[in-house]
Amino acid sequence: MTELKEDDDSQIDNRFEIIFLYDVEEGNPNGDPLEENRPRIDDTTEENIVTDVRLKRTVRDYLDSQGHNIFVKASEKEDGKLRSRKEMVEKAIDQKITKNEPSKSDIRDELISKFVDIRLFGATISVKKRSFALTGPTQFKMGRSMHKVDRRYIQQSVSIPSDGDQEQGTFADRYDLPYSLIKFYGLVNENAAEHTELTREDVHTLADGLWNGTKSLITHSKMAHKPQALIIVEYNEDNYHIGGLDHKVEKKSEKKDKEIRKFSDLELDLSELRKELEKHSDKIEAVYTEFSEEPSLESDKIDIESLELE
């Protein structure tokens, strides 16, 4: 069995299924700009929602800080103005785009070889006569809290006056969640990976970005984020995955949902997930895991490997 390690640059052959859990205390995991930046809530279920765009941003920002080349990020010129799409591509390939050069295939190959986020998430390149789209092999559903959440409105004083002639400060308000345990579900598709040349090393890099990227969030609304569980299932058969494994991870708590304030207030139940994985063990190459603490996924029927994320 080939381990999912950083030094394996072989292209992926089969599918990966991902479950990622992280929590937040006293923060706003993903504000909605159309709702005064309030935490996103499903009005029917009262669950907290986090977009896949927010999760990918976390991964990109962390990998950028670790020296990886990232294509999708704000790009400023020396004069402080943002680069156009064409200018972003020119900077990325370190070459001016003229009428005849470089070719679309040359641009594509250069971007794929250089940028890990393109290999993971794809990209749409809009340059006259050279536009193309790469479907990302790694896709996530919207993240949801595993419980109903309590959204709070908080008003606080600001000591610095809003105008220079005022003697007193003003008030600021914000919305946050006392606690939210968020579950994401994702797939890495081997067919799309052929077009972006995604490698096993890239999948390990993704795991690092999910885990350590979440730990590295430092804004006021994101600083109390903590990864709790990451489970990556690798299959050994073409065009196959079990599907819906996120529904097999459940939580138990003696407290009512909106009374939960920390991870120790609940317990993760992985028994149904273990049963489902063991049921399909002949289709599974290995399961790679990282937990902040117990539980574990020990099993006699499937290979469980640590991701060894620091």
What do these coordinates show?
The chain has 310 residues and is an alpha+beta fold. It has a domain at 16-68 and 136-151 and 177-306. It contains 7 helices and 15 strands. The chain has helices spanning 52-65, 85-93, 104-114, 116-121, 190-196, 200-215, 271-279; strands at 16-27, 31-32, 38-39, 47-50, 122-125, 132-135, 138-140, 143-148, 152-158, 170-188, 225-235, 250-252, 267-269, 284-291, 304-306. It is globular. The mean pLDDT is 90.
- Rounded to the nearest angstrom, the radius of gyration is 22 Å
The secondary structure category is alpha+beta
Tell me the number of helical segments per DSSP (H or I, 4 or more residues long): 7
Distance between the termini: 23 Å
Q: Which overall shape is indicated by the principal axes computed on the Cα atoms?
A: globular
**Average pLDDT metric:** 90
Quick rundown:
23% of the residues lie in helices and 29% in strands. The protein has helices spanning 52-65, 85-93, 104-114, 116-121, 190-196, 200-215, 271-279; strands at 16-27, 31-32, 38-39, 47-50, 122-125, 132-135, 138-140, 143-148, 152-158, 170-188, 225-235, 250-252, 267-269, 284-291, 304-306.
List the helices and strands and how they pair.
Layout: E1 16-27, E2 31-32, E3 38-39, E4 47-50, H1 52-65, H2 85-93, H3 104-114, H4 116-121, E5 122-125, E6 132-135, E7 138-140, E8 143-148, E9 152-158, E10 170-188, H5 190-196, H6 200-215, E11 225-235, E12 250-252, E13 267-269, H7 271-279, E14 284-291, E15 304-306
Parallel strand pairs: 14-15
Antiparallel strand pairs: 1-10, 1-11, 2-3, 4-8, 5-6, 7-10, 8-10, 9-10, 11-14, 12-13
